[in-house]
Amino acid sequence: MYFVYILYSASRDVYYKGFSENVERRLLYHLESKSKYTSGTNDWKIVYVQEFESKSQALIEEKRLKKLNRVSLEKLIKDKD
After folding, report:
1. CA–CA dist 16, 14 (Å, integer)
2. DSSP character for 53?
3. What residue segments make up the domains of the chain, in order of their start?
4. Which of helix, strand or coil describes residue 81?
5. 1, 3, 13: which is closest to 61 by C-alpha?
6. Is the predicted pLDDT of residue 81 greater than 70, yes or no?
7. Which of 38, 59, 70, 77 lies 20 to 30 Å from 13, alpha-carbon distance?
């Protein structure tokens, strides 16, 4: 399975969108500052996850999410609950 996820950092008040086959392992990667964009922040939380059967479907959705504005992202997160 493949996953598209959104992380949120309260200290930076920012969302990060990504793709992974293992979201929990990927979160640790971000928390350990191994990603340039998310480095230096250790309060990332998973706020949204969507599962896909194919890698291509997940990558298409990741690309779509990256184009969304903040209001649209927050609505998507809220509606998923």
Report:
1. 7
2. S
3. 2-80
4. coil
5. 3
6. no
7. 59
HEC profile of 6-44: EEEECCCCEEEEEEECCHHHHHHHHHCCCCCCCCCCCCE
Q: What type of residue sits at position 11? A: S
* Amino acid at residue number 13: D
For residue 19 the two structure tokens come to 């793709």
Structure tokens at 9: 């950092």
Domain 2-80, classified CATH 1.20.58.480, yes or no: no
What's the CA gap between 8 and 27, in Å, rounded?
11
Distance CA 78, CA 32 (A): 27
